Amino acid sequence: MSKTACRDFLDPPSKDFIGSLISIIHFQVDLETMIFSFDRNFSETLGLPPIATLSQQEFLEQIPRPDQRFVQFNLTSVKAGNSNIMNRGLRLFDGKGKIRHFECRSRVEQATDNSQRKTLKGIFVDISERQVKQPALSESEKLFKAILEESPHAMYRIDIKRDRFDYISRGFAKTLGRSQEEILALPYSEFCT
Q: For residues 172 and 149, what is the distance between their CA atoms, to the nearest angstrom?
C-alpha cells in the first residue's frame, strides 16, 4: 500500500470535538485491514508531504525502532479483542528525522452499518514542547525550592479550605520557635488568635 493523496483524508472531527491551540491529529485504524487514516494535521504537524492513509508497516516506519514492538503489541492486542483502548505515549519521526512526542488516546468503535467491522478511532496530541520544557521547569523548581529553604525570611503558604499550612520555610519555623513538622501539623487558625 502506498501513501495516498489528499482526496482520501478523514473528515474533520464532528462539531462536538473540542478545539485546542495545541496540535491534535485525528486518526482511525481499520482493524480488519490495519490501514491507518489521518486528517490533514498528520502531515502538517510532522512536516511531511500530504499523507491520508498508511499501511501498518508504513506507520511503524514513522516510529523509532525501540518503540515499534510496543506499538505493534498494543495494536495486536486491540485487534484480537483483548483491549478496546490504546492510550499511550508515542514518538514519531517528523519530516526532518527529528522525534516528536505525542499522547495517543483511542478506543475501538463498532461500525454504524450492520457489518462487524471495527475501527480504532482517536487522537494524537502533540506534547513535544512540553517534553522539551519539562527538564528546564524541573530545574527551575529545584532552584526556587532551594532558595526558599535557605532564606532566613519567614515564608509560608496556606490552604484556607483545609485550615493548614501547605509550606513553611525554616525562617518561619525559627521565628515561631517551633519545628517545621510541628507547625505543619497544627491548624492555621490556631495562629490567628
A: 10
Residue type present at position 156: Y
Mean of pLDDT values over 72-80: 91
- Reduce the DSSP state of residue 69 to 3 states and report it: helix
What does 79-137 look like in DSSP terms, one character per residue? HTTS-SB--EEEEEE-TTS-EEEEEEEEEEEE-SSSS--EEEEEEEEE-HHHHHHHHHH
- CATH superfamily, region 6-132: PAS domain (3.30.450.20)
- Residue pLDDT, tens place only, 15-47: 444 445 567 889 999 999 999 999 988 988 899
Distances (CA, A) of 87 to 59, 90, 122: 17, 9, 9
Q: Which residue has the higher pLDDT, 158 or 141?
A: 158
The amino acid present at 116, given as its one-letter code, is: Q
